[in-house]
């Protein structure tokens, strides 16, 4: 325990006389200092017993009061005056006692047979003893935490041991701020769930370097990242910490990190099983079989989607670990040399998860599909991943994805050359663009004349006439699938989104 004024006075080897002391308070003495300055306050660090023989001690009431105020403002908790026949004062002056009483600053008289060095030695001997006891307690705490982890107590045992030994509450959350385990709430008020998430959101981008100290509901809170090379969790310490708590905190964080790594390693067989279930869902022979496999993983609903994410420069294992935090069901897999893949529910904000855990990685997101057709969603995710690598951002597959694929996955110059070559006979014969617009409207209308005419706002006979003209120009019949596909790809590569107000072409 720290040295208090009461313990210092009670020391039988020190003949200390109390001139004034409000015994309702027993201040802690953290140092000893000797000064004969008239204004010693600026030389104090706080917590000291200030000793003086009073060479320049003021003799007027105002000056004496100003001296005591300066000593107290400097942080001293005790003022001691040396007394003796060969010293300036044989007894403590009444004016000094009155000033000490007015400022409520303990005042002592030190007889000449007690040298100041004796009091200094007593103060620092007590401080050294207290620090030794604190280190012993720290060693015992480390042993207790290690024993809790080694004996199978898990995170719960580690947290309970910590709080019982320090009186400081702790909440362990995942990197998203979702609580994993917490000490007994009776030890102190734990932050609300929303507050935990907000703190995690601020620190998570900093990884294992993210830490802060703050105050929540009047309580000091320290947030420390937990993890060896990858952020696994946050430990939020709640309550007033002692002077050696920073050292103890390092021990706590290290043991929590080891326990989380152990949990991750021991769950490897389960992750491998889920990776196998992922493949079984893709090749399920019926809707009901795929639905049953999803339900076994804890996923219910009518539709799901597949995603594919490049690990980039990071570790695929770490990316799997991060996504496992938020993807319900944990249906995630990674094959050597390929992307990390997952099946996610329809209500998952997967784009936000990708931004958080793989901000610089290419990612493809498939369409929502029923359980029995998830193989198609995976194929879409893989196709979108190709485009994402070019665009540098996540890409979600959607209807009309062909244009994105052509303009981003294919060399732009090559795509434009292809488009110009296919459409050149039409654009050269009709610079107004009516022929190109008619072909696009007709293809968009599933090769139906009337809808195409309505969209172009021309008569259906005009559409037929233009299409005959197109056949003559390209030298191929439009009723052949290859011709239609080639024209559609050329139009898509050209990027024709809206039809111009075409004028009727002279026949």
UniProtKB/TrEMBL annotation:
Transmembrane segments: none annotated. Residues 22-127 form the Purine catabolism PurC-like domain. Residues 435-493 form the PucR C-terminal helix-turn-helix domain. It holds the Pfam family HTH_30. InterPro entries: CdaR-like_regulators (IPR051448), PucR_C-HTH_dom (IPR025736), PucR_C-HTH_sf (IPR042070), PucR_dom (IPR012914). It comes from the Bacteria. This is PucR family transcriptional regulator.
